[in-house]
Amino acid sequence: MASAEPPVHRKARHYRWDGVAVVPYKEDAQALFKSITRQVLFADPHQGSELRYFEVAPGGFSSLERHEHTHNVLILRGFGHCLVGREVREVATHDLIAVPPMTWHQFRATGEEPLGFLCMVNAARDKPQLPTLEELAEFEQSPRITDFLKGVR
Amino acid sequence: MASAEPPVHRKARHYRWDGVAVVPYKEDAQALFKSITRQVLFADPHQGSELRYFEVAPGGFSSLERHEHTHNVLILRGFGHCLVGREVREVATHDLIAVPPMTWHQFRATGEEPLGFLCMVNAARDKPQLPTLEELAEFEQSPRITDFLKGVR
Predict the structure, then answer these.
(1) What predicted TM-score, i.e. pTM, was given to this entire model?
(2) Structural domain includes residue A75
(3) Active-site residue set of A
């Protein structure tokens, strides 16, 4: 485990960090997402959770998904909307969002600057599930959620 | 565990959050610290780690301590200095600091505004150890650390 020890200090430079790679959001080719990057800030083998930074360009969004593991989110920059369960919420810098187990969620950058957020997650976690066509059709029964999914603020 | 489920969305208002109490930094009457508060942002029973926000007023400092558990820190606001091991480092907004196991550390707000930082920590963790007089004397062999401990930038 000693080889995985992170450096003690990593400087930040406009939402990038020394020694932290900016990587694709995810590898799942089935998931629908747009204009989003991922940086792993802490994956400390001594801790149960990891901390990642995601950045969504204006108009972009994370995938609509659910899973058994939870997300603990702090908005680090910008403004946007998120869907958690069947609720659409406006989120701004430093707001906290907790995504409970098996709850559909998506983040969208609906402002004019990027939406950047920290996301704490268990190191050991299950694979996200994507909605079926039937589940998507169910969301579309709600005009508020339909607007959200179309990117209408 | 369901009763401990956090609210989905908590708004931020200038480094305070809806429903999050601002509490004393710590209860240990032996520890030397100054002008620092604590807010627990996430203590999700589904996750291995918690996320806390500490804020140190100008001139204030956290206790000088070490423990087996690690700290994963992201500076949320302001500027300061930290001691990690025998290194004094200047830290600024969004910098990352990883405190390894059993490593002496302290944070000081050496700028003109508060130093605020997020600290991720295992939910199950050991109690911090404070330095003995002999250990303090050893730090004072280093002029850089002596200046740091006196609050000299």
Answers:
(1) 0.94
(2) yes
(3) 119
